[in-house]
Amino acid sequence: EKGGYEHFMLKEIHEQPRSIQDCFRGRLNLDEGWVGLGGIKDYEKQLTKAKRIIMVACGTSWHAALVGEYLFEDLTRIPVEVEYASEFRYRNPIINEDDIVIAISQSGETADTLAALDLAKSKGATILGICNVVGSSISRVTDAGSYTHAGPEIGVASTKAFTAQVTVLTLMALTIARKKGTIIESEFRKIITELDLIPNKVAKILEKADQLEEIAAAYKDASNALYLGRGNSFPVALEGALKLKEISYIHAEGYPAAEMKHGPIALIDEEMPVFVIATQGPSYEKVVSNIQEVKARKGKIIAVITEGDEQVKEMADHCIEIPDTDENLTPLLTTIPLQLISYYVAVMRGANVDQPRNLAKSVTVE
Ligand code: M6R
């Protein structure tokens, strides 16, 4: 059932070209130039008129929501708030009847997310879901929603569910943007063309498994690690850190790269691996300066870069090259090598990768 892989997590990481494709099958048509999500069709109009969208989730799904915030605000110009479900439900949040609350959950059973939805519903908001498990509690209580179609995820560490959640959020944002007129046709075409190429590009990154295993071997004995990114790579940094800590038990933190100098920089010495997402894009030059700041303090840099980048290669200790894509889609690619590195580190440390200590696949208690 592990399809020849040693662990479910490894199998699920390798399934991503397929699971991302499954996620947009029937929802994206390049020839005719459209995207659409059947499940939320009746709510499209309401979404285009929304003054605010609130996304609630936990863990990795909360990181997907943060990527969603960038996508929605950039493409649809609708203000988005991303909330930890557990915090949202206990702080007397302001919820209006014209708000749309989107819950994101792989299992569709997370207690805090479910309770946050109940609260939003009681205040009259429209509640939508993005779930992986068909027929799950969250998919049943929501007014409407879209499944991620990633297939069963067994490993406790979420991998393919995350990339599928980001794919659904991309499709949703594109659908609303087009209906609302906040995206020009050429840009829309460009993004859907690039989205269609993502599964092949993910497959290309997976071919780098040997290089990623070598990087893992170099840092497997670290006691701490830092993950840095800016813009939509910041949630990828958070996700990279979560993946490493939950399966390898190495303490890891994700930070917005520019925040490093407000505290975490004090941690940097020659023992500290710093993973940096430094792909081409609007914040590239800024990230390059952040890398220089780390190097000046003898930290080790493992950089995820766009193919052909020479500047970062000269500074970093290790570089992982990924294919170029549209700025809005980079999280779908940059996440992949970080998942694999965490996996290999955990295996090398002899940890129980699929069932880390103290963790359950779905957290049905608060
Ligand atoms: O099923 P959900 O997406 O609602 O689960 C949320 C979190 O419990 C989950 O993402 C958790 O953080 C994972 N172990 C992360 O890999």
From TrEMBL:
The active site is at 361 (for fru-6p isomerization activity). It is an enzyme of class 2 (transferase). It catalyses: D-fructose 6-phosphate + L-glutamine = D-glucosamine 6-phosphate + L-glutamate. It is found in: Cytoplasm. GO terms for molecular function: carbohydrate derivative binding; glutamine-fructose-6-phosphate transaminase (isomerizing) activity. GO terms for cellular component: cytosol. The keyword Cytoplasm applies. Keywords: Aminotransferase, Cytoplasm, Glutamine amidotransferase, Repeat, Transferase. Its main location: cytoplasm. Residues 43-182, 215-356 form the SIS domain. Its EC number is 2.6.1.16. The keyword Zinc does not apply. One of its GO terms (biological process) is UDP-N-acetylglucosamine metabolic process. Homodimer. Catalyzes the first step in hexosamine metabolism, converting fructose-6P into glucosamine-6P using glutamine as a nitrogen source. This is Glutamine--fructose-6-phosphate aminotransferase [isomerizing]. It comes from Brumimicrobium aurantiacum. The chain holds residues 250 to 615 of 615 of the full protein.
